Amino acid sequence: MTTAAPTATGEAPGPAAPKPSGWAPLRPMVLRLHFYAGILVAPFLLVAAVTGFLYAASFQAEKIVYAHELTVPVGDGKLPIGAQVAAARKAHPEGTLSAVRPSPSKDAPTRVLLSGVPGVGKDHTLAVFVDPYTGKVRGALEQYGSTGALPLRTWIDEFHRDLHLGENGRLYSELAASWLWVITGGGLVLWFARRRSRRRLRGTSGRRRTLRLHGTVGVWAAAGFFFLSATGLTWSTYAGATIAELRTSLHQATPSVSASTGGEHAGHGSAAAGGGAHGVGLDKVLAAARAKGLSDPVEIVPPAGASSTYVVKQIQRSWPEKQDSVAVDPATGEVTDVLRFADYPVLAKLTRWGIDLHTGVLFGIVSQLALMALSLCLVLLIVWGYRMWWQRGRAGAFGRPVPRGAWQQVPPQILVPGMAAVAVLGYFVPLLGIPLAAFIAVDVVLGEIDHRRGRRTYGGRTA
């Protein structure tokens, strides 16, 4: 057996010191970023999680609260669409006809949508619910969005999206979506860097147990958090606009059927609010759309003007999605343009599926339950995160922060490209880049102040 040569002191040398890994200088920086991002952004995430939970539950609650308007007794035969619209207009002559959603099933009413109704919010419509068998009006409710959200779901949706503060309030949700994936990614890196033997929950207590609960749930829910963050950014104020511009430059924008009398697919919207039935009438328009394969549920939009067509579009967002649309000439009843969802660009399809899954409509009750579970996981992670902060302290005080200056330990060959990547990412996602730049600036300034006072911190020890 070979033995090591004795040293000059006559003692055998000990084992060689392990070579430090590339992760060693990065861990303190990732830990500090995860810690402070979690502490500062967690209140926004908590609001988003709670309101998101309520929104996912609102689909089923809506069916209960508005059961009278949303269901009708099944009769023998449905009246013509034109007669149903006439009944709705007789009961509600105010406003203008903006769209009609014919009864999609045997026990569902027809929705006649009116815009410009006094007392109805901007970008909202008044939905008049008509019994398709008798023509009786069962009620009228304010409606919002392409999914036909009624007052309860609309209120929760707006609370989740902007806290009922308008466009400025949307910044809260964009901030939460911008940072959710960063916090999740940092947590994953920290968790998997730990040795597997240290992940056992059994036999642990105190802060160590809270940490392991926090990490275990975070790992299992991470994929869902990444998805919610990415899809949430697609229709945010700033990042969403950048994404839309990028899709347009790549010719991946969502197309729409041409609403002019003849022509190719246009990049503008289909049709605005019209005054009522035009030309051949709603029933022949619907028949023409049926002949092109547009099955229920559909929405009929009247012509916006003298040179516009009817637009009939499928509005099913659950799987399988139905998003085909056609334009119908009001004078002849002939289809002038057809747009199939199968012909959408790839990114347009992915955006549509991502948004519909994020909002809980793509797979119905299944996706709604999954969203509620993700929301609950996020609430628990935030609570455990603040508890760890408390447990990190002493004598009931909140915990000590992770020592600053960690970025100074990162090798330049890693730090410089990393900062460049963060700068580019911050440009496209400003509510990530601006707070991150502010955090780094404050961190550097406070570190310099400590240095000038002779109390600069190294690895948690004061010099």
Automatic annotation (TrEMBL):
Chain segments annotated as transmembrane: 35-57, 175-193, 213-235, 361-384, 414-442
InterPro entries, sorted: PepSY-ass_TM (IPR005625)
Keyword set, alphabetical order: Membrane, Transmembrane, Transmembrane helix
Biased amino acid composition, Low complexity: 258-271
Region feature (Disordered): 1-21, 255-275
Secretion signal span: none
PANTHER family, alphabetized: IRON-REGULATED INNER MEMBRANE PROTEIN-RELATED (PTHR34219), PEPSY DOMAIN-CONTAINING PROTEIN (PTHR34219:SF1)
Record's protein name: PepSY-associated TM helix domain-containing protein
Species of the source: Streptomyces glomeratus
Lineage: Bacteria, Bacillati, Actinomycetota, Actinomycetes, Kitasatosporales
